[in-house]
Automatic annotation (TrEMBL):
Pfam families: Sigma70_r2, Sigma70_r4. NCBIfam families: sigma70-ECF. Belongs to the sigma-70 factor family. ECF subfamily. The lineage of its organism: Bacteria, Bacillati, Actinomycetota, Actinomycetes, Propionibacteriales. The keyword Transcription applies. This is Sigma-70 family RNA polymerase sigma factor. It comes from Nocardioides fonticola. SUPFAM superfamilies: Sigma2 domain of RNA polymerase sigma factors (SSF88946), Sigma3 and sigma4 domains of RNA polymerase sigma factors (SSF88659).
Length: 188
């Protein structure tokens, strides 16, 4: 029996279902690994791989073997799909999984942080260490409202608490955070 990875026509490799299947067998794992490295989420990487081959099939007439190989063309599509997914995540951060902050958490700080990478790294470490030392409900409220800049109403609904309770958690959490940072010897 012939190996489907070797019978890709060179002029119109995605013209039919068999061509798309053969292209997927040949290039799918590489595209998945690329998407996984870029998105750091296996489910999102699977979606990106599927979307890549779907777009390639729909626009098979745009493939020109004289301009680029099928692999290069597919990776161009995959790159655009990954960028679209990353932009989608930035616009809807509440759809990302919520995880408590840890010392390895890379939650972005507000844009007014220092330009010095060492200063930014130190600031991140201090904030993460201080956050780890306060109560969980207060920590979750601060992370969601201040660090991820989500609206109070959204966070309150997600946590299943009234907005007033969330505001109290943020208020007392910030007080506890300041006290913790003072105890750590951090001056603002």
């Amino acid at each position: 029996m012939d190996d489907p990875r070797t019978d890709l026509p060179t002029d119109r490799p995605l013209a039919d279902e068999a061509g798309v299947h053969a292209a997927y067998l040949r290039h799918g794992p590489e595209i998945y690994r690329f998407a996984l490295r870029s998105l750091a989420d296996p489910g999102a990487a699977q979606d990106a791989t599927q979307e890549t081959f779907l777009k390639a099939w729909r626009h098979a007439d745009r493939f020109d073997p004289e301009l680029a190989s099928l692999r290069v063309w597919l990776f161009g599509i995959a790159r655009n799909v990954v960028i679209d997914q990353l932009r989608h995540q930035q616009v809807r951060p509440w759809q990302r999984p919520v995880e408590p902050p840890t010392t390895s958490d890379r939650t972005p700080l507000p844009a007014d942080t220092a330009d010095d990478p060492a200063e930014e790294l130190m600031t991140r470490w201090v904030v993460q260490e201080a956050l780890a030392r306060i109560a969980e409900p207060q920590r979750a409220a601060i992370v969601q409202v201040h660090l991820r800049q989500r609206p109070y109403a959204e966070v309150a609904a997600e946590l299943g608490v009234p907005i007033g309770t969330l505001r109290s958690r943020v208020f007392y959490g910030l007080k506890a955070l300041r006290a913790t940072m003072d105890a750590m010897g951090v001056t603002a």
